[in-house]
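Q: Could you predict the 3D structure of DUF3149 domain-containing protein?
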Amino acid sequence: MNVFFRDFFTDPVLFLSFGILGIVIALCIYYVYYFVKKVNEAEIPE
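A: Sure. Here are the predicted structure tokens for DUF3149 domain-containing protein:
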């Protein structure tokens, strides 16, 4: 396990891959939250 952390912080490709993946997942979570919030606040036309 120690080797993984050493490689993770020394290999820029691995570090950037997980970093970009984290940003994409964070954006997906934000947009799901934003969509659900807008749907709940929407006025229902009569």
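Q: Anything worth pointing out?
A: Residues 12-41 form the longest helix (30 residues).
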